[in-house]
Structure formats: structure tokens, C-alpha cells
Write a structure and sequence with these properties.
The chain has 205 residues and is α/β, with parallel strands linked by helices. Helix content is 45%, strand content 18%. It has a single domain, classed as Rossmann fold (3-Layer(aba) Sandwich). Strand 5, helix 3 and strand 6 form a beta-alpha-beta unit. The chain is globular, with a radius of gyration of 16 Å.
């Protein structure tokens, strides 16, 4: 499975979302962010700005953490992706830029999912309503959580982390882990038996 996490807007949680999905599903991690420190948590392939991005074969399960302009390096990866997950905050400016990103991405691939991240109170519903007026792609919530910010240092998925804490902290981590599971379940329902087998292997570890 080739999953691309992409937004032209920076600072919207692309790497954190990519990292938890990679840790949860055992995906290879490829990024164009040379300043990223994801290697603290798992093996990572960093792609130099002057080097084409390799499209791994269907036999490889990979998440591409991509950002910046939708240039000739990124277009082929988007076209080859089974899913493109576009994270954004609920901030109106970020939503506007994300809508622009969606318009650009859907020219190459319409297997788009939207994740509204770092939400509190009614922020998700407000942002979701804005997207619903302008596009029909599935939209998911990832609530604000300290555990998401700590992913890099701990090197464990949110689901693993939930098993290590207790009380209110556990409830918080489980809630966000469940939200990621909603995204995973959606992809499972849309993807081939290959992805279903991947999930089965992960759960049987």
C-alpha cells in the first residue's frame, strides 16, 4: 500500500500523522523533510530535493510524508498512491490553503481523505462543515493530545502508548488512537485484500 500524507501548508501535523500510521501499521517511512528527526522513532528514507522520489512497488507498504509545492517530483507519487491523506488544522487560513491543495491534488488522484487535527471543542464540526460545502471527500478528526506531540520521542504508536498509561491519560490517548483507527478502517474498507492482510498481520503480532 502506498499512502501519501501531503499538504502544501506547513505546520499542520503531516509528520505526526505519518509517524503514528507508520508505527501502527508497520509502514516504511519516506520523507522529503531533511530536517525531520523521525529516525529517532523508526527507520526513515530522506529524499534530497534534487533527487526524484522513488515509487515503491505494490509489495512494499509505505507512507510518504510530503510537503511543499506540488512539483514534478511529487506528482508521480500522488498518481501512484492508493490514498492521499491531507491533514489540516481547523484554523480558517489553514482550511483555505488546504482547499487549494485539494484542488491541485485531485487533478492527479481523487482517493483523498481529510484529517482535521489538533482539534478542541467544536472546531472539528466547524471545519468539517466548510469542507462539506466545497468537496465530498471523507473527513476525520484527530483531537489535540499531548501523546501525539510525544510520538517522536517515545517511538511507539498511540495504541501502544494507551496500554502504558492509566486513568484520564489513558482515556485521552485511547480516544485519539480510536480516531486514527477510523482512518485505518476506512482505508481497509476501500482497499484490496492486500491491505486487509496487512492489518491482520499487524494485529496478530
Amino acid at each position: 500500500m502506498r499512502l501519501v500524507v501531503y499538504n502544501q501548508k506547513g505546520g499542520v501535523g503531516k509528520t505526526s500523522v505519518s509517524l503514528n500510521l507508520a508505527l501502527t501499521l508497520g509502514l516504511e517511512f519516506v520523507t522529503t523533510d531533511l530536517l525531520s528527526h523521525v529516525e529517532i522513532a523508526l527507520p526513515v528514507t530522506k529524499i534530497d530535493p534534487q533527487v526524484p522520489i522513488e515509487i515503491l512497488p505494490d509489495s512494499k507498504d509505505v507512507v510518504y510524508d510530503l510537503g511543499g509545492a506540488l512539483d514534478d517530483r511529487i506528482k508521480p507519487v500522488l498518481e501512484a498512491a492508493h490514498f492521499i491523506l491531507i491533514p489540516t488544522s481547523a484554523d480558517p487560513l489553514d482550511v483555505d490553503i488546504t482547499l487549494s491543495t485539494i484542488k491541485s491534488v485531485e487533478q492527479h488522484n481523487k482517493n483523498i481523505l481529510i484529517a482535521i487535527v489538533n482539534t478542541e471543542k467544536d472546531e472539528y464540526e466547524t471545519a468539517r462543515a466548510t469542507f462539506a460545502k466545497l468537496c465530498a471527500y471523507p473527513t476525520f478528526e484527530i483531537s489535540r493530545s499531548k501523546a501525539v506531540r510525544e510520538l517522536l520521542n517515545r517511538g511507539k504508536s498511540l495504541r501502544e502508548r494507551a496500554g502504558e498509561v492509566t486513568g484520564a491519560a489513558r482515556q485521552n490517548v485511547e480516544r485519539v488512537a480510536d480516531q486514527f483507527d477510523d482512518i485505518i478502517s476506512h482505508m481497509q474498507g476501500k482497499f484490496s485484500q492486500q491491505f486487509k492482510n496487512l492489518l491482520s498481520n499487524i494485529h496478530n503480532r
